[in-house]
Amino acid sequence: MNFPKIPLAQWVDHLVDWITSTFDPVFNAITGFIDGLLDNLVTLLGMGPSIVLILIITLIALYTSRWGVAIFTLIGLLLIDNLGYWDSTVDTIALVLSSVVLTILIGIPLGIWASQNDTARRIITPILDFMQTMPAFVYLIPSILFFGIGVVPGILASVIFAVPPTIRLTNLGIREVPKDLIEASEAFGSTTGQKLLKVQLPLAAPTILAGVNQSIMLALSMVVIASLVGAPGLGAEVYRAVTQIKVGEGFEAGLSIVIIAIILDRISQNLRKPLFGNIINKKIVYSVLAGVLIVAYAATAIAQAKPDQTSSKNVGDQVNYEITGIDPGAGLMKSTEKAMKDYGLNKDWTLKEGSAAAMTAELKKAYEKKEPIIVTGWTPHWMFSKYDLKYLKDPKGSYGKGESIHTLTKKGFKQENPGANKILDQFYWKPSDMEEVMVDVQDGAKPENAAAKWVKSHKQQVSKWTKGAQKGNGKEVSLVYVAWESEIASTNVAAKVLEQQGYKVKLQQVEAGPMFAGVADGSADAMVAAWLPTTHKDYYNKYKGKFEDLGPNLKGTKLGLTVPKYMPIDSIEDLKK
After folding, report:
1. Segment holding 526, helix H or strand E
2. Which of 123, 191, 297, 426 lies 20 to 30 Å from 75 when distance is taken between CA atoms?
């Protein structure tokens, strides 16, 4: 069927652009509120020695649950502290608690409304189905555009993902209250509000708390996904371990998440009927705990309050002393950390982790509003074609000289598939060629279509790559690449050329660490995405000798700190002023 494709993606993009521009003040207010909420909570939880918070959580576990749970809590939290993940754990607990508070504030009222109104239930139910079946990653895309990178989009994505159980089980719990009890309350002249507060909610409490418990677990499951947009905590540690193939560190961070999950699960399950509730009234305990928390939080918020410095002429004040980075553990991030140390910025400035996509989304948002922003940049990249940007001068040479992008193949690939090896060996182009493909992709073209367009319009250059190479005759070639715009462009172009020569090409998108590991262990044939000598230095050295380096397929790359040209700074040294 040759029906034209419905431009759904374009409609959604236009809708998001309209929402972003129209409700920007609202999003800024929400961002400021949640940022402040979390910053103060992290400060409060991290105040004093770690043993203080460990003992408090252990006492809560002891009051609500069995002795075994309390002992597990104490040993588990001490283990996390010993492994060096305590600060990340505090960030994670703060993120989950903030998400759960918002989930309760949204979920329980909506659940009550759905239980009291059949029309509302019929409207809310399919929305909840959509929220629970839509991949959680999708929520991060508009969240970045609305709220920038950092913890806010992570929290809001967690709320969207975690709120359905609270709504569903609140509705279910209230609707399952026996009808004879409802009729009895009505016979005694109860109003709707009295019936809800005195009969329905108390009887539905176990079901509602079960929904809250599920929401806590779902919010905790989002911590790794939220790290893709810069949310701190144990999720970022797991993500960093994945990208660098550090099995041990990944296990440690993952174990820490499991420990926190078990503790929160056991405590939340027993809040309604605590083990020692008969000895010390739970209302007294919870009231005292809430009162202390509120007073301590208010004191922390007052102490942490800072004047608005966005109008300051100091560039650090304007950007909140933050540099927007990419994937944790990436070579560019390590070079940026070195530069911050070299220029004396490591004490006052923060390098925000996230992903390349999150970084460009943050840049887009700031550039359109002519706001100051500092990002980690590299060329070739489409953002230099779309935006008027400049590199900050690096007089100390922290970022080194320009890099090259190399082609690597597995051991024995030349003998196994000489034709494909020859094409990959002869594959070489310029940054301007790569940017041509990248811009088309950024403008909405599918990578394979943008690659096909470039190959078709550069036949003479392509003929140099295929000169003397055998035809493929259906032989399979697997290429791996990391999801950077530059590598998406180069890998798809290489794949398109190989396909034209009769090869069956399989593309696999992975993180940087798995990309090198795949070629080294032979599960992938080749890559055209190794940035050397800096960006992928660690991976290259780790697997050196387990692959063949065919040399550069592109020269003239550059790394550094990048700002819009409307910003009145020219050097990294200007950031110290």
Report:
1. strand 526-532
2. 297
How far is Cα 84 from Cα 458, in angstroms, rounded to an integer?
53
Q: CA-to-CA distance for 181 and 463, rounded, in angstroms?
A: 83
Contact 95, 154 (CB under 8 A): yes
Give residues with Cβ within 8 angstroms of 529, minimum separation 6: 405, 480, 481, 482, 484, 486, 487, 490, 491, 515
CB 527 within 8 A of CB 405: no
**Strands 504-510, 404-410: parallel, antiparallel or unpaired by DSSP?**
unpaired
- Answer whether residue 220 shows pLDDT above 80: yes
Identify the three-state secondary structure at position 389.
strand
How many C-beta neighbours within 10 Å does residue 52 have?
Answer: 11
- Does the pLDDT at position 403 exceed 60? yes
* pLDDT at position 309 over 70: no
Question: Do 58 and 77 form a contact (C-beta atoms < 8 A)?
Answer: yes
511, HSE (Cβ side, Cα atoms, 13 Å): 20
| Residues 125-153: tens digit of each pLDDT | 999 988 888 877 777 777 777 877 777 88
Strand order in the sheet with 476-482: 504-510, 476-482, 526-532, 404-410, 547-555
pLDDT score of 305 more than 80: no
Contacts of 551 (CB under 8 A, 6+ apart): 406, 407, 425
The overall pTM is greater than 0.85: no
Are 538 and 330 within 8 A, CB to CB? Answer: no
